[in-house]
User: Fold 16S rRNA (Cytosine967-C5)-methyltransferase from Shewanella fodinae.
Amino acid sequence: MTPVEKHADSYAQTIRLLFNDILQSKHSADRVVASYFRLNKKHGGRDRRIIRETLFALFRWYGWLKHLPAANEEQRWFRQLAVCGLLEQHSWQPTLEAWQQRAGLLPHVATPWQQLTEATEQLQLWFAGSDFPAQALVPEWFWAQLPELSEHQKIQLLQSLSSRPPLWLRVQRLPTVQAIQSLEAAGLSVKASTFFDDAISLGHQSINLNELPFYKAGYLEVQDLASQVIGHICAPTATEHWWDACCGAGGKSLQLASQMQNRGRIVASDIRQHALLELQKRASRAQFDIISTALWQSDHLPVAQEKFDGVLVDAPCSCTGTWRRNPDMRWLNDVTAVTDKPSLQLDILQRASTAVKTGGKLVYATCSLAYAENRTVVDRFLSSNPDFRLQMLQHPFTGERTEYLTVWPFEADTDGMFVVRMCRQ
Assistant:
């Protein structure tokens, strides 16, 4: 074997090990990959990129890959790697050619595609007669969770889920123009959002944010554009008192603090102490001192009742809206990831609502696209809480007026989100 072929085989073995580990353990790909690289310092930047991007591509296209024709499992594995390189238009051509040779495929260089039908045509050059239906790129149970989606929208969604999402950042504590100029001076390509003044995209550039002075100084936060919609729906003012009831690592708490210009008060809660500690670190880096934390681990509220101008319930969910960013989750979860959540979501929403004062806002959000976790939960809550009323919202990307706002990934190159805003009468 040539040195290139040896390297290609080594990559293939490592990726296969990680891929099987993820499927068997059902641990997230991010977690498994991070653990592997932490234990294996031998890999350089190029090695890490080939391993990581190919691994995620395998999950992105797994609905097609698992049915590829092959003489044996070894050939099928190399065919799967070769197809990933073709569809993702990876740049490590010598490695891809070695994988194609091991797969028994004729050399074929990827060409850009825009529609899934064009991706199918490229595969037909290798696998004439094989069928590659677009809807197979997600598990079959998923479609039953989206009863309001048209056939055209389903194709749009699949095309979004078949592409890598950009890296969205939110600028805080300084003008966005200044942040863009500083990042461009550091050699980065930056694109400003046309929807939010403080949002920028770094596209698909491979960067280490921890090495950026502006990031270390707290002027930038990683936050997908769809997630940023939630803060704009909350629309807090500098004098208000807000409770982020399910804050996680605190991305939306930080967004609220930025919108409030570090004035007013925010209480952030979660059931996990380590999440609150992470938020405290991020708030300190951002120099926001209006955020306090309160652990929520019982049926009793960790905050006072009827005292808040606004309460945000970013409820735990199936995270189907993040499948573009986390393609492994399509195949690690089953339908119970959706069906197990609504009762918990309703319970959290019901308890958290008691903290809203008269005239205050209650915002319910998920990063799920499933009807059962979104509108169904809201409607059940409203049916037993007549003192709350839905408010009309304007979709920031489409301009649509609606009470139930769903952000679809194909609307603005984002993740998927759902949000409503209610007012206590």
Q: What stands out?
A: Residues 111 and 336 are 39 Å apart (CA to CA). The two ends are 74 Å apart (CA to CA). The longest helix spans residues 3-25.
